[in-house]
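Query structure, 145 tokens:
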């Protein structure tokens, strides 16, 4: 219903924050995708889910790759934030994830990889301006780790 699965949220909260603390993800390339029931004629909240993921990645200083409508496969996978797959039909019948939806995901993955390759080894953004000092960092990690 337009939210991150709790396991993804837990991963972000328990693992990614440690990388965020020391600016390890600044300037790295990121992309998002989602799946959902999509019953009726809706995307089952996948755009809200993707926006939530983009927000977490942006907070880490990552370079976010969108999924423009000109992308191969976008007509079947929907969102400008990233591809998604619906497992339900317009009459609320379960129909599974279709090959055309998977193709959109593959095309998006190729786009993310091309951006990452083009930016490899480049320092595009400042890092380390606000990294907590030793004892503060250790205290934060012990409370949240």
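Result returned for the query:
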């Amino acid at each position: 219903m337009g939210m991150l699965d709790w396991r993804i949220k837990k991963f972000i909260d328990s693992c990614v924050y440690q990388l965020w603390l020391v600016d390890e993800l600044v300037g790295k390339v990121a992309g998002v995708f989602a799946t959902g029931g999509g019953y009726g004629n809706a995307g089952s909240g996948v755009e809200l889910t993707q926006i939530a993921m983009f927000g977490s990645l942006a907070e880490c200083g990552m370079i976010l790759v969108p999924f423009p409508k000109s992308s191969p496969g976008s007509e079947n996978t929907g969102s400008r934030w990233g591809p998604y797959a619906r497992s339900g039909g317009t009459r609320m019948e379960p129909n599974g994830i279709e090959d055309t939806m998977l193709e959109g995901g593959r095309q998006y993955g190729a786009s993310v990889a091309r951006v990452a390759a083009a930016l490899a080894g480049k320092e595009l953004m400042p890092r380390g301006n606000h990294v907590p000092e030793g004892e503060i960092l250790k205290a934060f990690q012990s409370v949240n780790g």
